[in-house]
Amino acid sequence: MLLRYHPLSSYSRKVALAMDLRGDTIEKVAVDAFAGELKSEGFLSLNPFGKMPVLETDAGPIYESTSIIEYLEERGPRVLLPLEHERRCRHFDRLGDLYLLDAIGKFFWNKQEETKKTSFATLDRAWGVWEQELSDGRDFMCGEVITLADVGATIAAHYCITEEYPLSPAIQAYFSRLCTHPAVAASNEAAAPFVEFTRSMRYPAIE
Ligand SMILES: N[C@@H](CCC(=O)N[C@@H](CS)C(=O)NCC(=O)O)C(=O)O
């Protein structure tokens, strides 16, 4: 198997982090996204929507971050989708995609005041849901271990920090707990140079 991804892409990072948390040792190949590879004929034959990540398997390509993680969990071992919390994991994974990753992604690429207003309002609502869920003192969304319910949120929280979205103390504490896992720390470290690179493109130096 082979994962086509990019260390700056939030959804790629979601899958790469899931793989590391699961202990998968699947080869990762960076897509040359800035050179237009996503819209090349070759890449579109893997994912007709021209988006990363894509997992190439003997049974053909699998796209959509959650579908890739579900495929790996189905093959086993089951690490991120524990049976007793399966519905909850899938629910918060979906919320994480729709209201955390998508919202911060929009603002990452478009710094218009209007985009900031709508993206940050969506983030406020979504992090509010997370805060409510964590208010009983649990470490992570399903208890003491990191599950699929936390994976997208982990990546989103990292982007929120680099984009200076004001995380509440409770969500900052949640992110700090997540970062104690070596796979999360490694994911943040791997993305850092790319995050800096795109920031420098968008924030011209003030002389
Ligand atoms: N729903 C998809 C979203 C994938 C996605 O939006 N990927 C972005 C990178 S984070 C992408 O490839 N964007 C390129 C484009 O839309 O042209 C998933 O979960 O995999």
| Number of helices, counting only DSSP H or I runs of 4 residues or more | 8
Q: What string, H for helix and E for strand, traces the elements in order?
A: EHEHEEHHHHHH
CATH topology of the largest domain: Glutathione S-transferase Yfyf (Class Pi), Chain A, domain 2
Low-confidence stretches: none
Number of domains: 2
Give the SSE layout.
Layout: E1 2-5, H1 10-22, E2 27-30, H2 41-44, E3 54-57, E4 60-63, H3 65-75, H4 86-109, H5 113-134, H6 148-162, H7 169-179, H8 182-202
Parallel strand pairs: 1-2
Antiparallel strand pairs: 1-3, 3-4
The structure holds glutathione (GSH).
Tag the structure with descriptive keywords:
207 residues; alpha+beta; Glutaredoxin; Glutathione S-transferase Yfyf (Class Pi), Chain A, domain 2; 2 domains; 4-stranded mixed sheet; 8 helices; 4 strands; binds glutathione
Fold and architecture overview:
By secondary structure, this protein is an alpha+beta fold. The chain has 2 domains: 74 residues, Glutaredoxin; 120 residues, Glutathione S-transferase Yfyf (Class Pi), Chain A, domain 2, CATH 1.20.1050.10. The protein has 8 helices and 4 strands. Strands 2-1-3-4 form a 4-stranded mixed β-sheet, covered by helices on one side. The longest helix is centred in the middle third of the chain and has 24 residues. The chain is globular and about 45 Å long. The model has no long low-confidence stretch (mean pLDDT 94).
